[in-house]
Amino acid sequence: MFTTAAPTKPALPRDLFSAIADLKRELNAVVLAHYYQDPDIQDVADYLGDSLGLSQQAAETNADVIVFAGVHFMAETAKILNPDKLVLLPDLNAGCSLADSCPPDEFARFKAKYPDHLVISYINCTADIKAMSDIICTSANAVKIVNQIPADQPIIFAPDRNLGRYVMEQTGREMVLWQGSCIVHETFSEKKMVQLKIQHPEAEVIAHPECEEAVLRHADYIGSTTALLKYCQKSDRRSFIVVTEPGIIHQMQKAAPEKQFIPAPSLNNCACNECPHMRLNTLEKLYLAMKHKTPEITLPESTRVAALRPIQKMLSMSV
Which of 19, 69, 118, 209 could bridge across to 166 with cysteines, CB 3.0–4.6 Å? Predict the structure, then answer.
């Protein structure tokens, strides 16, 4: 009788932090990480940021290898900006529910209904959607970018309906919204958050604009991930209810260790407010990606070139 041997796990160094530092030097690599990554990954990153900051860093880096500790669309953006560099993503399955909510074929048909509309797409979308867009934005610069568009120019905003609605409120502009959303930011419970406010009456509620309107109306401050981090450092308050992916709390605690940060509750008693895609990346996978130079992000050149123009437009409008 034959038995199949269990697959052997790859050998890992005892000190992953030191091994990753060695590989950075050997490969001339830079590790870019989003605030929603595991704390260990945040601690080894050369640059930590939100989508706008990471895009700016990807555009400016002199590294030969970009290791993107984030999700697939973020690594794609780095590749769009750096076609001659090796771009690695620790886990290719690290996708994005928001990006998945906007299939390219369906969006192309949607866009065709509004031929006179300018397309502004949130960076949380695939390279194919970026290629169909006129301008890319992030939660940090969406209001600023929309305010620069002539008042008589109609706009399609994709793919996040919650961010789109928030931008409409802030700018007074009517826009046609693609009805996409992020599973993490739609999982917060308004009822449980109100209960949490009662339990912590001294706490300020700080929220990401991807959250639903019912949740945002309870917020004392609304902003991008980086804006939330900066706000809690400057605020006189000593405690905060944080309504976004709780990975950012690691940096909040490092920046203001004397303050309290309370993750907002989800609809169910689960870890649903943690992005399951972001959390697929681990320190071990990051090391193995650098060690073996895979998984690599590749794109058809026609898609890359088409997607580059709206990203460059965003960067120029964000100065």
Answer: 209
- pLDDT higher than threshold 50 for residue 59: yes
Can you give the pLDDT at residue 214? 87
How is the chain classified by DSSP, letter by letter? Answer: ---PPPPPPPP--S-HHHHHHHHHHHHTEEEEEETTS-HHHHHH-SEEE-HHHHHHHHHH---SEEEEES-HHHHHHHHHH-TTSEEE-S-TT---HHHHTS-HHHHHHHHHT-TT-EEEEESSS-HHHHHT-SEEE-TTTHHHHHHTS-TTS-EEEESBHHHHHHHHHHH----EE--B--TTTT-B-HHHHHHHHHH-TTPEEEE-TTS-HHHHTT-SEE--HHHHHHHHHH-S-SEEEEES-GGGHHHHHHH-TTSEEEEPPBSSSSSTTS-TTGGG--HHHHHHHHHHT-SBP---HHHHHHHHHHHHHHHHHT-
Would you call the peptide bond into 159 cis, given omega within 30 degrees of 0 as the criterion? Answer: yes
| % of the chain at pLDDT higher than 70 | 92
pTM score of the predicted model = 0.86
User: Are 159 and 102 spatial neighbours (Cβ–Cβ below 8 Å)?
Assistant: yes
Q: Answer yes or no: are the C-beta atoms of 116 and 155 closer than 8 Å.
A: no
